[in-house]
Amino acid sequence: MAATATKGVVEESQDQKEELPIPQPPTHLYGYLGNLPDLDPAFALRSIWRLADLYGPIFKLDLVKRQSVVLSNYELIKEVLSDDRFEKNVTGALQELRPLIKDALFSAYPHEPNWHKAHRTLMPVFGPLGVRKMFPEQLDIASQMILRWDRLGPDNIIDTADDFTRLAFDTIGICAFNYRFNNFYAEHMHKFATQMSESLLEAGKRAGRTGIENNLRIWSAQHLQENIDAMHKLCDDLVAERMANPRPEINDLLNTMLNVADPVTGEKLDVENIRNQMVTFLIAGHETTSGTLAYLFYNLLKNPETLQKAQQEVDQVVGDGPIEVKHMSQLKYVDAAIKETLRMNGPIPAVQRRAKQETLLGGKYKVTPDMGIMINLKGLHNDPTVWGDDAGIFRPERMYDGFPTDAWRPFGVGMRSCIGRAFAEQEMILNVALILQRFQVEMADPSYELAIKSTLTTKPDGFSIKVRRRTGKDAMVGLTGAKTTAASKSSSAAKIEGNSRTRSKMTVLYGSNAGTCKAFAEDLQTNAPEFGFEADIKPLDQATENLPTDQPVVIITASYEGKPPDNAKKFVAWLEANASDISLAKGVKYATFGQLISTHIASFARTNGILGVGNSEWAQTYHKVPKLIDNLLTAGGASPICKPAFADVKQDCTGEWEEFSEHFWQTMQETGQAGSHEQKSELRAQVTKHDMPALLGGQEMSYGIIKSCRSLGGQGVGPEKRELEVALPEGTTYSTGDYLVVQPLNNPDTVRRVLARFDLHSDDLISISGTRKAYLQPSAGRSSIEAAVFFFQRVELSGPATVRQLEGLQNYAASEADKARLQELAQDHPKQVLGKNYSLLEILEDISSLQPPLSVFIDSLKPLTPRQYSISSSPLHSANHKPSAKPEGGHDTYSATISYDVHSAPARSGGSRIFNGVCSSFMANLKPGNKIHCFVRRTNADFRLPKDPKTPIIMIAAGTGLAPMRGFVQERTALAEAQGAQALGPAVLYFGCRDFEKDYIYREELAQAETLGAVSMRPTFSKRAPEGEGPQYAYTHERIWAERKEVVGLFKDQGAKIFLCGSASKLAKSTADVLVRIMMEDTGKSKEEALEWLERIREGRYVTDVFD
To answer: Which InterPro entries match (predicted)?
Structure first.
């Protein structure tokens, strides 16, 4: 049973000395467990962050053994930074490390004299001059990592946590006590590093356990002591060896600690304290630096325009010559990027303080010396009153803007701040410069989203990169002996010997999130040998600074709401950063084909064709990326060889691709760049009867588990609306407004029809060869795939047939009448095929004489792509958060809901067939306990609730477009329950329904939220409204117009932010129209001026998530 929670921060009293209670979450088990169950034992800080979001800038936790007050904003934190009233509090995991490092700099209690002696002795060594002297040793270790990466090549996957840990560990070893751990020359980390890692982990666990439990864990305590003894022995041996064989010529910390006396007491550090300091340097130095570097490259790669700026600065300051210590102070943007990373993702997540005597924080919250005070650095470093509303965005330039000194504290507080700050900053700038000077860096998995792991510090979990040496860079660039001139490029055309004749090489570069563009790239790769080419396909980012000049390059990329795909961001940023370079693409000839949502570009040294793919509903960003690339290539000296062509995924995307590829190869032949047409290597599909059960596979942690599923209504007035609640994999989190991406299975009835049409049994095995399309290949280690598994999991079966497919089917028509029917469908394709969603399978069923081989059918199918749904819940709501049930080693788990329409209706193609939406029908048939393959995708950075909950919001939605708005309301409800409604600004929700009884989804929940002050509901009903409840409106735009004075007041006077989710052609258009009308009436502006205003506010204050 939970005790009653203390409400959140209330408005300040006129009497600033009036004492107020500190907000506190409800305790557990009648108070006996305090707030311990609220903390994730494997990652307590994540729980602290969640509680800070709920309870505000100050709250208290009962940790049974002690009380802890958590501070999360600048105004309160700046007060406890004073060393006059407050001091460091050695507690938690740091206290548990005392057996290892005792009274060293990091862990000494404030009253212990050794801290003062060591601090005074070592400060000069860590001053500017002392750190500059360590540059050669830092460069020594950095070069080991750089050369190793270069040697392993561009396909090697680099685990950033592992390699940057090796780097920082080895750097501390050589600079602190001239010891080489040689981690870059061994497969596994040095045993000292392993022992330290285990000790840090165990210290964190011990801090989260009760004293009784720690006493019972005898083996864990024994293993910890064994690790401590081993680490102490190595350090003791190094000290003994140096004392026996002095080496005064060595510039390291060990010589200083052995030979320099404290200027105040005249005493030298004793041998035991020297050992403790050595271990401390390794702990503090390697954990923080390695984590910061990993976070930095994540931020740079997620924001490639910042990567371009950093790389350009390195090129301007250092060039191709050796990196020298003088360059460190000149790399100002690199330094700013590191500092911005420390603000956003500092590896030290909190600082512990305590009051020296009883005092009032903020003049109203009493704290006593026996209370711990935790400075939540994430809260400090994201406080919008200091950093602005864009605090969640990585923007290194903000480090130039100026900010209060106490608002940025990644290196600690007061006299106990990190003594090695200058050392760490020099080490990080050096390594970033070396990496950017030599390499193009890319994510090993472009879709990776930041996951965090925690020990004593935090760092990215599972973040890997790849590096490729930049064109023209010498093998020793940046190091002593480097050449200062770029290596010359090869000018001879690359050739490869084929089976029948010599083939030219071609590179196909793709940018794709959903897989469609990659499938097109594989299609081009498969057909290339017909025209005398051997094609190699790669992600588009690998072409950054690396467009080949000795072979054709085809670029196929997508445009998502005007933004490039994850694996094309670097390439686009590179083009934009060099837009003024008129020779950037000199000699490139290209052709352009475009379509909204995906963008396809073929870019060659001699010939370039661009295919752009997109969705015409996003009018403002329609084909933005392909057109941008087309324009930048032209501006950079490239010459188009044919007119641009663009496709729309709402129409016949595959058909447009087929037309483009045919035209592309024809142009290549006409210009003499492609050989005569060869016989195509046809896809072959061989069927073998299966004689054993199907093999099961799949990774457990890539699946979510269905917690609940329910109907929300809607039947009778439209499609049924349903909710699916998914328990996410352990450790997976999300933010309100994010998406859940679901990989569906095809409808069982559709699969049965395919199997029947080609006389297949579900267990028959299909062996596929003669194609490069990865989605058609069997799993690794297998030569075949079961027929049912293939058609359930691999290919789209329900999409409309393309013109090319219809033309190809004519070869298998048994009569002139059937051939004429196919020609009629092809000629009237938009109406008879696209308009009716007439699939290839349905055509084969309706024209039964058509008997194409199974291989022809398979070769025409696109990959089954995942579907994306807005999450309709908030992780802050208690119903969506489950504390870990494991005493240690587990993580809190979160659930997410998605709200969706079930598409099931008579097929527009006629007959007795029923059209079932692939993913919606798949989800509608799921039951609690089922597993689905899914992952969280982050939303547009602007589609988030304002950081200040008092900022008003206006939400506009219709149907299941309510999903993200329901998440926003859930979050505001949780805040209202924790802090009181006075902590929230106004929130208005315009919600379009058909029938007040049948499809006003979440009605009771929204009414309860309205009672709490979390939202003001403004429903509209297009078919049936409740009687006697005042004015009724059929559509949201009508009600917005009627209430325009309130809307203007919220938006213009109070700074409200508008969110919209729903149909692009209906809701988004009608809302844009009414906002323009309101603007014209309120300001007297013309329609054109009002439209320009609407475009200006789209990024930050009018944010849409539309679909059709």
So the answer is: Bifunctional_P450_P450_red, CysJ-like_FAD-binding, Cyt_P450, Cyt_P450_CS, Cyt_P450_E_grp-I, Cyt_P450_sf, FAD-bd_FR_type, Flavodoxin/NO_synth
CB atoms within 10 A of CB 346: 24
Give domain 504-596+607-671's CATH architecture: 3-Layer(aba) Sandwich (3.40)
CB 440 within 8 A of CB 467: yes
Among 280, 288, 802, 1071, the active-site one is 288
Evaluate the CA torsion angle 937, 939, 940, 944 in order and state its sign: negative
Whole-number average pLDDT of the chain: 86
Domain layout of the chain by residue ranges = 95-469, 504-596+607-671, 698-744+866-939, 746-864, 943-1106
Residues whose CB is less than 8 angstroms from the CB of residue 224 and which lie 6 or more positions away in sequence, other chains included: 99, 198, 199, 202, 203
Rounded distance between C-alpha atoms, residue 646 and residue 612, angstroms: 5
Distance CA 154, CA 134 (A): 31
Secondary structure (3-state) at 1105 = strand
Tokens of 975: 């805040």
Q: Which amino acid is at 927?
A: K
CA 363 to chain centre: 41
Q: What are phi and psi of 18, to 5 degrees?
A: -70, 125
pLDDT digits (tens, 9 = 90+) for 261-302: 999 999 999 999 999 999 999 888 888 999 999 999 999 999
Q: Which two tokens stand for residue 356?
A: 């020296």
Mean pLDDT of 26-30: 91
CA dist., res. 645 & res. 601, Å (int): 10
The residues, ordered by sequence, that sit 6+ positions from 45 with a Cβ below 8 Å of its Cβ are: 349, 350, 454, 458
Task: In whole angstroms, give the CA distance from residue 535 to residue 100.
Answer: 57
Token digits of residue 722: 């349903």
Choose which CATH entry (1.10.3720.10, 1.20.120.530, 3.40.50.720, 1.20.990.10) describes domain 746-864: 1.20.990.10
SS3 state at 1017: strand
Q: Residue 65: what pLDDT?
A: 81
The answer to whether residue 1051 is catalytic is: no
Any idea which residue has 């988030």 for tokens?
A: 944
Say which amino acid occupies 58.
Answer: I
Reported as a single tens digit per residue, the pLDDT across 987-1003 is 999 999 999 999 999 99
d(CA 234, CA 278): 10
Residue-level pLDDT at 555 = 79
Look up 991 and say whether it is catalytic: no
List the structure tokens of 1090.
């009002």
Residues 36 and 41: their CA atoms lie apart, in Å, by 9
Q: Where does 95-469 sit in CATH, by number? A: 1.10.630.10
Check residue 614 and give its pLDDT: 53
At the top level of CATH, the class of 698-744+866-939 is mainly beta
CATH fold of 943-1106: Rossmann fold (3.40.50)
Give the tens place of pLDDT for each residue, 892-938: 789 999 999 999 999 998 888 999 999 999 999 999 999 999 989 88
Angle subtended at Cα 555 by Cα 553 and Cα 561, rounded to the nearest 5 degrees = 165
Handedness of CA 21, 24, 26, 29 (dihedral sign): negative
Judge whether 504-596+607-671 and 698-744+866-939 match in fold. no
pLDDT recorded at residue 646: 67
- Smallest CA-to-CA distance from 651 within 835, 838, 908, 865 is with 835
Q: Is the dihedral of CA 812, 815, 816, 817 positive or negative?
A: negative
Catalytic residue among 135, 169, 411, 423: 411
Catalytic-role residue among 43, 192, 292, 418: 418
Where is pLDDT greater, at 524 or 44? 44
Q: Give the list of residues 6+ apart from residue 1027 with CB closer than 8 angstroms, or none.
A: none
Clarify whether 288 is annotated catalytic.
Answer: yes
* Residue 700 confidence (pLDDT): 32
- What phi and psi values does residue 873 have, to the nearest 5 degrees? -140, 170
- Do the annotations mark residue 418 as ligand-binding? yes
The tokens of 73 are what?
């904003």
Return d(Cα 607, Cα 654) in angstroms, integer: 23
Residue 757 CA to chain centroid, in angstroms? 43
